Amino acid sequence: QRRRLGMALEVGGINVWEIDASDRLRTQGDRSGEYGVTLDSGLATLQEEDARLSRLRLAGIREDGQARDFEVESRTGGRRFAGRMIMSADGEVLGVSVDVTALREAERTVRDDLARRAAEALQASER
Fold it and tell me: pLDDT (tens digit, 9 = 90+) per residue, 15-55?
């Protein structure tokens, strides 16, 4: 079952991770080998502002126990990940994230195409 779960996570581009009270990081999934074994090493893979906001989200979860959604960008390669963090019953923060880079690129393409078409329609109506 573990092997199948690992394969499913990899195929789906999904990462699952846990952060314990001493900020040790355990990961499984598509890119888990890149994150290291501490919160600091995991956050170091993110853009600086995303790492800062992730620390604030983590502190908020530890304080109020409420889940937090997020979207972050990797420091290298421009990959985007979206997911959710929750507090477990034993005080660990659990998270899941998925690579949304292709989705965001497709959204940008559609937006750019719509803007181009609107500009062309405006020019045509002015003529």
Answer: 888 999 999 999 887 677 788 889 999 999 999 999 999 99
- DSSP H helical segments within 30-100, as ranges? 39-43, 48-64
Task: Please give the Cα distance from 116 to 106 (Å, whole number).
Answer: 15
Q: How far apart are CA 67 and CA 57, in angstroms?
A: 9
**φ and ψ of 43, to 5 deg:** -70, -25
**Integer Cα distance of 45 and 42 in angstroms:** 6
Backbone angles phi and psi of 12, in degrees to 5: -85, -5
Distances (CA, A) of 68 to 7, 61, 82: 26, 7, 11
Q: Say what the pTM is.
A: 0.77
